[in-house]
Amino acid sequence: MNAGKDAVVLAPINLLMKYTSDYPIKIPLSLVKLFLLLLGCVMIVAISILLILDPNKYILPRFNSPTFVKMVGYVGAGLFGVIGTYVLFKLFDKKPGLMIDEYGITDNSSGTSIGLIEWLDIDDIKTTRIMSNKILVIYTNQPEKYIKKAKNNYTKRALSSNLRSFKSPLSLSANTLKINHTELEQLLKEHLKKNKEEVTGL
C-alpha cells in the first residue's frame, strides 16, 4: 500500500520533470482539448440557430418573449461562432502554445495572447476561478505596457477588463495546452522564482 501511495505522490513530479530542462521549454497545444472546445462551440451555435429560427418553441415562463429568445440566439451564434472559428485555426497552429525561456513567458494559447511576458515585469502568479474554470493571473508591475501590446481592439478591451476584475491584464489557462492547471502553475512559479533569484543574485 505504501508503494501505491508513493506512486501517486511521485506521478505529478515525474510529469513536471520533463518541463524543467534547459531553455526554451515548449508546451504544445493540445489537439484533444481544442477539438472538444470546437465541438462545444458547434453545439452551442446549433442550439442558438434553433432559438433564432423558432423562438416561440423555446419561450420560458420567466422570459415570455420571442424577441428575447431570438436575441439570446443571435448572441450565442455570434460569440461562439467567432470562438469556434478561432479554435478551428488553432488546430492547425504549429507554434507552441506556451514557451518559457530566460526572457519570460511567451503565450500563444488564446485569442487574447500578447506574446512575451518578461520575468522582470512579473510580481506574482496566482490561481483564481471564473465559475468552475481555473485561470492563472500574472500580476505585473507594467499593466499599461501589456495593454498597449494588444494586437486589436478586442484584445485591448479584454485586457482592460482583466485589469479591472483581477488587478492585472494578464492571465493564462491550461484549457488549450498539453499540461494541466496544477502542473502549469508549479512550472511557472518555479521558473519565476529561478529568474528572480538570478536577477537579485540571491
Please tell me about this protein's structure:
With 202 residues, the chain is of the alpha+beta class. It has two domains: 32-90; 96-200, no CATH class. It has six helices and seven strands; from the N terminus they run αβααβββββααβα. It has helices at residues 2-17, 31-53, 66-90, 143-148, 153-166, 181-200; strands at 25-27, 98-100, 104-107, 115-118, 122-130, 133-140, 170-172. It has a four-stranded antiparallel β-sheet, with helices on one face. Strand 3 and strand 4 form a beta hairpin. Helix 2 runs antiparallel to helix 3. The radius of gyration is 20 Å and the shape is elongated.
H/E topology pattern? HEHHEEEEEHHEH
**Main sheet properties:** 4 strands, antiparallel
Helix-residue proportion: 40-55%
Domain count: 2
Which structural class is indicated by helix and strand composition?
Answer: alpha+beta
- The gross shape turns out to be elongated
The average pLDDT value, as a whole number, equals 87
Assembly state here? single chain
Q: What radius of gyration results from the CA coordinates?
A: 20 Å
Contiguous helical run count:
6
Outline the low-pLDDT stretches: 1-15
Task: Indicate the proportion of strand residues.
Answer: 15-25%
Distance between the termini: 41 Å
How many strands appear in the DSSP assignment? 7
Widest beta sheet: strand line-up: 1-2-3-4
